[in-house]
Design goal:
Structural class: mainly alpha
Radius of gyration: 17 Å
Largest sheet: none
Number of helices: 2
Distance between the termini: 12 Å
Number of strands: 0
Helix content: over 70%
Length: 72
């Protein structure tokens, strides 16, 4: 059974939005690290960057696995 085109398009757009949000978070974290005046801000920036990279790598794969067509 195939997935309707509208559902597939919505899922594809959601995957792309998650990837873009992850990249934006990583860029924000790098900017925070670069411009941080104190060590706490740098640590927060590093944590934000690492978590954004994890989101970019893992969440789309998890969504694709959840939406997989063949459930056998």
């Amino acid at each position: 059974m195939s997935v309707p085109v509208s559902v597939a398009r919505r899922r594809w757009l959601l995957l792309q939005a998650v990837r873009i949000a992850g990249v934006a978070g990583a860029i924000l974290g790098v900017m925070l690290v670069a411009r941080a005046p104190d060590i706490l801000s740098k640590v927060i920036g590093i944590a934000l960057t690492l978590s954004a990279i994890v989101v970019t790598a893992i969440v789309p794969a998890g969504l694709a696995h959840r939406w997989r067509s063949d459930r056998s």
